[in-house]
């Protein structure tokens, strides 16, 4: 890619559709991984916008309800999907979670946005089989639609118990840089 094409390229608009892990739950404002990614993009790709449409407690069905209006309002070039953890923690049907994720990806692609799917793991509360099927559904959905894929949002974080808040679910501010790099490095490779 020549320098002139970099300069004239339209800056990306990235929409992050996520849950509490992206919505800075339990953190000071502007210290979460999405804000850290905004700061990294300001350095590496000036002009890129990142819109954080994440809501604590959101599910894939909640995301499906909100996505069409968000796409119309922001017209993103990228949608980062960080949804599904709450579905899994509530024991929702694997088939339904995957169908919702498929629809989230399809809706984004139909609106000319590229998609990055973020995978999650859950504790084996509902059995090892359910946990493994849950983990695999993100990869399967991403591959089916040729979307970019982060295998596990909390890679490199899960091994640090002190990087979690008292609920042992939500990462602390200390973990946010690692989380951001997990997402940012995959996104950057797609450029």
Walk me through the structure.
This protein is of the alpha/beta class. The chain is built from seven helices and five strands. It has helices spanning 3-8, 33-44, 60-74, 85-89, 94-110, 128-144, 176-189, and strands at 13-18, 49-52, 78-82, 114-118, 148-150. The chain has a five-stranded parallel sheet, with helices on both faces. Strand 4, helix 6 and strand 5 form a beta-alpha-beta unit. The longest helix is centred in the middle third of the chain and has 17 residues, at 94-110. It is globular, with a radius of gyration of 16 Å. The N and C termini lie close together (11 Å). The relative contact order is 0.15. Mean pLDDT is 94; it is low at 1-6.
Observed structural traits:
five-stranded parallel β-sheet; disordered N terminus; single chain; 7 helices; 191 residues; alpha/beta
């Amino acid at each position: 890619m020549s320098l002139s094409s970099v300069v004239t390229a339209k800056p990306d608009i990235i929409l992050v559709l996520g849950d509490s892990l992206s919505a800075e739950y339990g953190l000071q404002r502007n210290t979460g991984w999405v804000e850290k990614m905004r700061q990294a993009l300001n350095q590496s790709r000036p002009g890129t916008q990142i819109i954080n449409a994440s809501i604590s407690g959101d599910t894939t069905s909640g995301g499906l309800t909100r996505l069409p209006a968000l796409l119309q309002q922001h017209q993103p070039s990228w949608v980062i999907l960080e949804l599904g953890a709450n579905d899994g923690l509530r024991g929702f049907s694997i088939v339904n979670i995957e169908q919702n994720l498929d629809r989230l990806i399809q809706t984004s692609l139909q609106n000319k946005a590229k998609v990055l799917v973020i995978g999650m793991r859950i504790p084996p509360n509902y059995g090892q089989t359910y946990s493994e099927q849950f983990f695999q559904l993100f990869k399967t959905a991403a591959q089916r639609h040729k979307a970019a894929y982060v295998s596990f949002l909390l890679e490199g974080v899960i091994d640090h118990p002190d990087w979690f808040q008292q609920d042992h679910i939500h990462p602390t501010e200390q973990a946010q840089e690692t989380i951001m790099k997990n997402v940012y490095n995959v996104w950057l490779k797609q450029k």
